Amino acid sequence: MTQQVPSTEPELAGVRNFRDVGGLPAADGRRVRHGVLFRSGHLAHATEDDAAFLASLGLHTIFDFRNAADQKLEGPDVALPGVRNVNLPLSDPADGAEFWQMVRDGDLGQLRQILADGKGAARMTASYRTIVKERTAEHSRVLHALAADSVPALMHCAAGKDRAGISIAVTLLAVGVERDAIVADYLESNAKHRRYKVRRSGSAESAYTPEVMELLSPLFDARAEYLQAAFDSIEETWGGTDTYLEQGLSLTPAHRDRLRERLLD
């Protein structure tokens, strides 16, 4: 039996952007069940109390969408007893390694070169399109696992915003959640207490100036246009959500029915 967790959001000291996706409305009048689908940032810095709370959720599977570079930077997730951990990198470990090194260590001139004049936002938009279009095998594996037995589930990446955000969105599309509700949940990652803590080398005076933070903001914001780019990629590549799910992710009507049984009230 799936444990029903309280609707109030827990205060986790070492895990950013945690939340239960329960309550979102589906087109058929049902809602996502509380206590079956969670999202967060990485679990590498979870405290003992955080780990005890996460263990109390009765999780079956944690899907970690970080790549090797992410895991090297932050560390592995804390181990939770009896929980299956599945690592499905949604970006190539070598892709953008120098870029992210620049984000952490670059001076103002270097940041201007790679992020100013809309380049940061354009990079994010392109990555959302790519993750939807080229990572169909990974998203298919997640949805088939959820349909089979892998709930309750927690999906996370580093910040719990982009890769986890897209994967949560794909899952919610598969069970018929309204797009407006999907976008609203995605934008919750902008709350101050949820946001990823940017690590920059150097003193606070030079590393976190207002201009630096403005240049970095496209990378660490959840912006509706990013998720819309993912939706647009579905429309442009497959012609619609149903075809994307059927042809791109190999989800049959029976699979989708099973997902609804698992995830919806």
From TrEMBL:
<comment type="similarity">
    <text>Belongs to the protein-tyrosine phosphatase family.</text>
</comment>
<dbReference type="GO" id="GO:0004721">
    <property type="term" value="F:phosphoprotein phosphatase activity"/>
</dbReference>
<protein>
    <submittedName>
        <fullName>Protein tyrosine phosphatase</fullName>
    </submittedName>
</protein>
<feature type="domain" description="Tyrosine specific protein phosphatases">
    <location>
        <begin position="126"/>
        <end position="206"/>
    </location>
</feature>
<dbReference type="InterPro" id="IPR029021">
    <property type="entry name" value="Prot-tyrosine_phosphatase-like"/>
</dbReference>
<dbReference type="InterPro" id="IPR026893">
    <property type="entry name" value="Tyr/Ser_Pase_IphP-type"/>
</dbReference>
<dbReference type="Pfam" id="PF13350">
    <property type="entry name" value="Y_phosphatase3"/>
</dbReference>
<dbReference type="InterPro" id="IPR000387">
    <property type="entry name" value="Tyr_Pase_dom"/>
</dbReference>
